[in-house]
Amino acid sequence: MDNNNIIYMDHAATTPVDTDVLAAMMPFFTEYYGNPSAIHSVGSFAKTAVENARETVANVINAQTQEIIFTSGGTESDNAALLGAALSRPKRKHILTTPIEHHAVLNPLHYLEEFGWEVEMLPVSHDGLVNSEDVKNRLRDNTLLVSVMHGNNEVGTLQPIGEIGAACRDAGILFHTDAVQTFGKVPIDVRAMKIDLLSISAHKLYGPKGIGALYVRRGVPLTPHMLGGGQESGRRSGTLNVPGIVGLGKAAELAQQLMPGESKRLNELANCLVEEIESRLQGVHLSGSQMSRVPGNVHLCIEGLEGEPILLALDAAGICASAGSACSAGSTEPSHVLKSMGVSRDLARGAIRITMGRKTTIEDVMKTANVLIQAVTDLRKL
C-alpha cells in the first residue's frame, strides 16, 4: 500500500500519530524506561514525565491535575466511570443515558441491568439531540448518574452538555460524558459544564492507541475497577504506560494550540463537501445536527443504495471512509444511532461517514466528492 496516494477520510475511527508526538514518546521506550513507581532516579524521571502529561491533559478541560486518571483508552474510561460509580452508590438503581451512545457505554449499562439497575433511555430528536428538559423531568431520588456523550462518533452531533450538567448538579446526581470524539477538538470546561466524569482517548487525537484518561471530579466517589499495586492513588492499578501517557500529553498540548483554527478549517471543508455533493446528487441526506456537530464530520445517507459498494468504490480510488463506528464494522444491521434518530431501515443502509483531519485539503475534498458522486451515479444505473 502506498500511503502517499491515500486520501484518509476516517479520522473519527483513528488518527495517525503526529510526528511530534512520536518524537516525544521515543526516549521513554529506550532511554528513560524506568517504572514511575520506583524511587530511584530513572523511575523518578519517568514519574515527572507522567505528571507533566497529567497536568497538560487537565489544563485542556480546566480540571485539577489530581482529577486525571490514566487508562488504556476510551472503553476502559467509560467502563471505569459507569461501573465504578454504580459500585460506589449501590442503593441508587436508576441510570439515564441515550440510545445513541457508543457501545463502550451501552454494554456496561446492560451489564448493570443484570444486577438490578434500571437503565432508562432518553429520547433524541431526528438530529440526534437530547433535550435538557427531558433530563430534568426524568431524574429521580434514586438516580445514580446521567451519561450523555459529548459528540456522537457516527453522525457528529454535539450535545448541550453544559445544560445537562447543570440539571444534574442541581439535583445532586452524577453526570458522565464520553468526550472521546471531542477532547481537543472543541472547547470543554468541566467546571463550567458541571461535568463529574469525562472519558478521553489518545488515538482520536493524533496520539497512540492503548492510552486514555478519565476525569473524576474531586470528591466524586468511584470504586476502583482495577485492583493490584494501587497505582494512580489507588484508583486504577497497573504499571503505567509511560510512553503512551507522554504521547497523550503531547497530543493534548498540540490539539489545544491548534484547536481554534483547525476547528474552523475542518468545518469549512465539511460544508464544502456537503454542498458539492448535494448540488450534484438527488436523494442525499445529511445526518445529525446541521449546526452543532464535531468539526470535520460528514455523515450521509444515500437513498436507494447500500453503503458498502459506495465505500468499496471510494477505496478503489484510494479514499478511506466508513459507514459508521469502526467498532461495528462488518455488521449487517443498520446503525443503532440512526435507528434511534428515526431514520428508516432502508435509508440507514446507505450510510456513509466521511471524517476529515489535519492533513485533509480542499483537493482531497473535491476528489472525494467527485468519486462518490460518480460511484452513486453508476450504482443507481445498475
Keywords for this entry:
382 residues; alpha/beta; Aspartate Aminotransferase, domain 1; Aspartate Aminotransferase, domain 2; 2 domains; seven-stranded mixed sheet; three-stranded antiparallel sheet; 40% helix; 13% strand
What does this structure look like?
The chain has two domains: 3-15 and 259-381, Aspartate Aminotransferase, domain 1, CATH 3.90.1150; 19-254, 3-Layer(aba) Sandwich (Aspartate Aminotransferase, domain 2), CATH 3.40.640.10. The chain contains twelve helices and twelve strands. The protein has a seven-stranded mixed beta sheet with strand order 2-8-7-6-5-3-4, sandwiched between helices. Strands 9-10-12 form a three-stranded antiparallel beta sheet. Strands 1-11 form a two-stranded parallel sheet. It is an alpha/beta fold.
